[in-house]
């Protein structure tokens, strides 16, 4: 099912303009693929989909590989700063990089993290409590460098 879904995502991104994850989710649903936001974020990460000025797009090289950038590389390249507000973390990224950072964080499935919300240059990371947020903040700061 995952391979068919990935094929459908590739097809949609090549044949139509997709401006948001919700729009992609709805287009997939019309093709018979019901997915959650978390699953769609993982698919986007695995397919190396990026969000540009004209919406979501596939990378130029369509070869399948397992060498997708990990969280360390993603945070090192796009993360600027991590701030804590009780059980919440705010990850400041370079402009336009919040979506790939949030997808990479979601893909890690760290136990301290309950979920993410991404804007353009900011990712909100929700943790269960302040202690877990502090642990995660320290880990992410170490990866940002």
UniProtKB/TrEMBL annotation:
InterPro entries documented for this protein: Arg_repress, Arg_repress_C, Arg_repress_C_sf, Arg_repress_DNA-bd, WH-like_DNA-bd_sf, WH_DNA-bd_sf
One family name in Pfam for this protein: Arg_repressor_C
Pathway: Amino-acid biosynthesis; L-arginine biosynthesis [regulation]
Domain Arginine repressor DNA-binding: 2-53
Residues of the Arginine repressor C-terminal domain: 76-140
Listed GO biological process terms: L-arginine biosynthetic process; protein complex oligomerization; regulation of arginine biosynthetic process
SUPFAM superfamilies attached to this UniProt entry: C-terminal domain of arginine repressor, Winged helix' DNA-binding domain
GO cellular component, one term: cytoplasm
Location(s), subcellular: Cytoplasm
GO molecular function, one term: DNA-binding transcription factor activity
Domain of life: Bacteria
Keyword terms of this UniProt record: Amino-acid biosynthesis, Arginine biosynthesis, Cytoplasm, DNA-binding, Repressor, Transcription, Transcription regulation
Keyword Transcription regulation on entry: yes
Role according to the record: Regulates arginine biosynthesis genes.
UniProt similarity note: Belongs to the ArgR family.
HAMAP family associated with the record: Arg_repressor
Protein name (database record): Arginine repressor
Species this chain originates from: Terriglobus roseus
Gene that encodes the chain: argR
